[in-house]
Amino acid sequence: MEARLDVFAVPVTRKLFGHFQAAGKTLTESALPHSTQELVKIRASQINGCGYCTDMHTKDAAHAGETSVRLHLVAAWREATVFTDAERAALELTEETTRIADAAGGVSDEVWANAAKHYDEEQLAALVSLIAVINAYNRINVAVRRPAGDYEPGMFG
Predict the structure, then answer these.
(1) 19, part of any domain
(2) Of 132, 133, 115, which Cα lies nearest the Cα of 124?
(3) Under 8 Å between Cβ of 27 and 41
(4) Among residues 64, 112, 72, 106, which one has the least CA distance to residue 92?
(5) Which of 43, 47, 93, 144 has its CA 20 to 30 A from that of 77?
(6) What domain count does the chain have?
(7) Cα 6 to Cα 10: distance, rounded to the nearest angstrom
(8) Helix/strand/coil percent split, the chain, to 5
(9) Largest CA-CA distance found in the chain, in angstroms, rounded
(10) Residue 136 CA to chain centroid, in angstroms?
(11) pLDDT digit string (tens) for 62-113?
(12) 149: left (phi over 0), alpha (psi -120 to 50) or beta
């Protein structure tokens, strides 16, 4: 598979991805647990069918010490016993936010309240922002058909 567009060769997307990376750095430095951040990025990428981001974030999570059992169960988190209640709330919020057009009214009050039981305002802001950023990455990568499989942890610095 070959990408339709090299996003790093075109000035506008290269610049945009630089802004996304800066946003990602801000979120990485937030109080939202790093393991939760990776789970969120993986789940949104799975929903959106973004092979590139799924490859990247599963490899990054494994490199950071995440277990293969948890990585294999992200897509089936509701039936899995390996996630904390806080992680489950973050994954549920990720799903509703990623699929925002599928439900009248967007994210339900119940899902928001469940997340708010586990995360303070700063963490919730980081979580919602993270979901938005990974969805933006996913949409660009899916549109240009960026191939998956060659990512190596740390290759983008």
Answers:
(1) no
(2) 115
(3) no
(4) 112
(5) 144
(6) 1
(7) 7
(8) 70, 0, 30
(9) 45
(10) 10
(11) 999 999 999 999 999 999 999 999 999 999 999 999 999 887 788 999 999 9
(12) left
